[in-house]
Design goal:
This protein is α+β, with helices and mostly antiparallel strands and about 150 residues long. The protein has two domains: about 50 residues, no CATH class; about 90 residues, no CATH class. It is flat. It starts with a strand and ends with a helix.
Length: about 150
């Protein structure tokens, strides 16, 4: 139902005489494909917590560049001008709410992307001079230990 699938296949409530899986995490499998639910014993009650881990995907950008949208007063004025001059007739030509929403989003996003285009800029990392090589090494090691945990 609604692409929701129960993902807990281990006992979440443990007592001396029983072990049941009464706590569950439901995941929309159409959106999250690569995820793992694992037990997280907290020692506070007879219910263990669940730990949901999923891999987030971020597109790689070349080192030294980043993609941004520049927003300034002129671009905001241009955006508002185009929104106000849009007829929106395609939005209201149907009685189906889903088609209306899709038509609205198509029109809105077309104007938004035209007014605020994505641009690549060179990342000018000025760095923090107070961060020493020792601190960087400690941060890296702390991150490694956290991931192992």
């Amino acid at each position: 139902m609604y692409n929701l699938v129960g993902s807990v296949d281990f006992p979440t409530r443990l007592t001396v005489t029983s072990a049941t899986a009464i706590d569950n995490v439901f995941i929309d499998v159409s959106r999250l494909h690569d995820c793992v639910v694992s037990p997280f014993p907290n020692g506070l009650s007879d219910h263990d917590a669940q730990f949901l881990t999923f891999r987030a995907w971020y597109p790689k950008q070349p080192i030294g560049t980043k993609t941004i949208r520049k927003v300034d007063q002129q671009k905001i004025s241009d955006f508002l001008f185009h929104l106000s001059n849009e007829s929106w007739s395609t939005v209201f030509n149907t009685d189906d709410v889903n088609l209306m929403l899709n038509s609205f989003l198509d029109t809105y996003l077309k104007i938004f992307n035209a007014s605020f285009p994505l641009t690549k800029v060179i990342n000018q990392n000025k760095g923090n001079r107070w961060i020493t090589p020792g601190i960087l090494t400690s941060c890296k090691r702390k991150r490694e230990l956290f991931l192992i945990k």
